[in-house]
Amino acid sequence: MDLLIHLFVGLHIIGIASLLGGFLTQMKQMGQGTARFSPGMLHGALIMLLTGVVLVGLNQADDNTVNNVKIGIKLALLIVILALVYVKRDEEKVDKSLFGAVGLLTTANIFIAVLWT
Fold first, then answer.
1. For position 42, what pLDDT does the model report?
2. How far apart are CA 70 and CA 73, in angstroms?
3. How many CB atoms neighbour CB 76 within 10 A?
4. Which residue among 19, 54, 85, 110 has the highest number of C-beta atoms inside a 10 angstrom radius?
5. 80 to each of 18, 29, 58, how far by Cα in Å?
6. pTM as predicted
C-alpha cells in the first residue's frame, strides 16, 4: 500500500508542477497583460484533484490519520483554481488579477500541504 501511496504523491507533485510551472513561465506576460491559462495548467489542476482524492482514500484505507479540515481547505482552494482556469481557458488574455490569484492560490495550497502538520 505504501508504494501505491508514494506513486500517487509523485503524480500529485507532477500536477502541482504543471499548474505552478504554467503560471511561473508566464509571469512576464502577466505584467504585460497578455498571460493566458495554458492547457497544461488545466490538466495539472485536474491531476491534482484526481490524485488528491485517491490519496485521501488510500490513506484512510491504510488506517492512516487524515486531517479532514486541512483536506477540505485544500479542496476548496483547488476548486476555485479549477473554476478560474476552466472558465477562462479559451480567452486570449486573462486579467492580471485572475491570473495572479491562480498563482497565489496554488502557492497557498502548497504551503498548506507542507506546513500544516
1. 97
2. 5
3. 12
4. 19
5. 17, 22, 24
6. 0.92
Please provide the DSSP assignment of the chain as one string. -HHHHHHHHHHHHHHHHHHHHHHHTTHHHHHHT-----HHHHHHHHHHHHHHHHHHHHHHHTT----HHHHHHHHHHHHHHHHHHHHTTT-SS--HHHHHHHHHHHHHHHHHHHH--
Please give the share of the chain, as a percent, with pLDDT higher than 70: 100
pLDDT of the residue at 3: 96
- Around Cβ 35, how many Cβ atoms within 10 Å? 24
* pLDDT the model gives residue 117: 85
CA distance 35 to 12: 25
CB 48 within 8 A of CB 78: yes
Residue stretches of the chain with pLDDT short of 50? none
- State how far the Cα of 13 lies from the Cα of 94, in Å rounded to an integer: 25
Nearest Cα to 46, choosing from 57, 37, 35?
Answer: 37
